[in-house]
Amino acid sequence: MTYTVGMYLAERLSQIGLKHHFAVAGDFNLVLLDQLLVNKEMEQVYCCNELNCGFSAEGYARAHGAAAAVVTFSVGAISAMNAIGGAYAENLPVILISGSPNSNDYGTGHILHHTLGTDDYTYQLEMMRHVTCAAESITDAASAPAKIDHVIRTALRERKPAYLEIACNVSDAECVRPGPVSSLLAEVRVDDVSLKAAVEASLSLLEKSQRVTMVVGSKVRAAHAQAQTEHLADKLECAVTIMAAAKSFFPEDHKGFRGLYWGDVSSPGAQELVEKSDALICVAPVFNDYSTVGWTAWPKGDNVLLAEPNRVTVSGKTYEGFTLREFLEELAKKAPSRPLTAQESKKHVPVIAPTKADARLTNDEMTRQINAMLTSDTTLVAETGDSWFNATRMDLPRGARVELEMQWGHIGWSVPSAFGNAMGSQERQHILMVGDGSFQLTAQEMAQMVRYKLPVIIFLVNNRGYVIEIAIHDGPYNYIKNWDYAGLMEVFNAEDGHGLGLKATTAGELAEAIKKAKANREGPTIIECQIERSDCTKTLVKWGKKVAAANSRKPQAS
Ligand code: TPU
């Protein structure tokens, strides 16, 4: 069989394990889409728009390790760029592939549709360089294999998105076949001297410390170091806390687990554990304004061992040239037992008392009922807003996954991301918690859950406004038009769908709705949970005030 550029790309994507790629058609990528369809190992999955396509791929990468999204030039790719920025912030290898102008049109002065109306077609590549770890433009078949391999390899190595554009007349041009994938995935060699020095410096901190605590951060998953983190915790036998964005990245049934470290809004006791440690091991953390609660809780100082994905900083020195996994593995081999912090503290499980069946539905009762649904097979996707705080206070069984987008924080992310995640892990039960304000951005992607018969259960929190923004900074702009959210499902079902739209205004109605949702395996179920606007978690309000204070610092006098 003659091989083409598009077939080469498809085989590479399939070799790295993709079973699906996401797409929105447009005339610059139609031939490319045909070429990708030749590969029977991968299914082409369609989205309503390119922003959602990017977020769907982002969700797939969360479930599956990597993903690809295929869009058309400018009108498509620039919409998708927002989601690619999200994938960058969240450390997810999403390959964005855009069709691009015919190679004969470059440098000719021709003005093309879907472009800025100038004759320079390099602007999209330039823009994408800022939100990806590798970006290539393919305008000839001969250089395509090297460019495709470079983009895929860099994305996988750096766990960041990457970008490819392929001239629309080149995607079916003849090219060589891909070689084996092992050469593409080869790991970088370890600097043994640096690794040994980092481990020795870390051990000397641990050996002179009795109060040792671990803080697990959100980059631990992208660094593929979750098992190594748990193993180190087994050896140290110390207390372990997690950061909010790392919810579910450390098993909560582990005997050292002591809940969430999030400054003032930590689980009871967790802040004291962290602040009173002689040695604090921060594994792959992200310290930003949100995670430090407006810069009020940022562990720093000589007692902090900062183990980042590509670097360790301890006792005033930084070490590089190895991965986090390698560092944690080596450290665990010699780590001393330091059980004091675990012995002196207890895991705090928040207990929410059930309300009567006919009582008005509350945020607490909704959270309680959702928590009771979680099993080791659940993936809980929680949108920006109070859903963050509800998800992070849940008690998780081992194996349950929580997906948050706390670095990028794009409202509306969760609907397409849950769709992509469900596509990428169909053996799991997907539950989505999303506020009404967020849902209004990307609601139409629920239609793809109907189309692909994915039994995602959506808890739509109708509190009639942007409650998180009300907590941070109130004004008339925080109040939204109400929708009939449950009613939307009928629109998306049209003549052939099996989605279910339900409403719950009391605790009993919610329990009934959950029963129906669990029984509906042929499509998604949206349960519109109607709660009072003022009913939100206490932590949201407390955290919101501190973040607002950080945002409203006055400019420094010059
Ligand atoms: O729980 P709740 O009521 O806060 O959730 P809801 O209703 O989804 O409201 C979220 C409100 C919100 C906004 C408007 N959270 N962050 N923002 C700012 C924002 C605006 N645009 C984008 C794309 N992302 C944002 N985070």
Summarize this, please?
The chain is of the alpha/beta class and 558 residues long.
Description:
There is one protein chain. With 558 residues, this protein is of the alpha/beta class. It folds into 3 domains: 3-183, Rossmann fold (3-Layer(aba) Sandwich); 192-344, Rossmann fold, CATH 3.40.50.1220; 363-543, Thiamin diphosphate (ThDP)-binding fold, Pyr/PP domains (Rossmann fold). The chain has 22 helices and 19 strands. Helix 4 links the parallel strand 3 (67-71) and strand 4 (94-100). Helix 1 (5-15) crosses helix 2 (30-38), helix 8 packs across helix 12 (324-334) and helix 10 packs parallel to helix 12. The structure holds ligand TPU. Ligand TPU binds at residues 383-387, 409-411, 435-438, 461, 463, 465-469.
Offer a few descriptive terms.
single chain; 558 residues; alpha/beta; Rossmann fold; 3 domains; seven-stranded mixed beta sheet; six-stranded parallel beta sheet; 22 helices; 19 strands; globular; binds ligand TPU; PDC/IPDC-like; EC 4.1.1.1; magnesium; Thiamin_PyroP_enz_cen_dom; magnesium ion binding
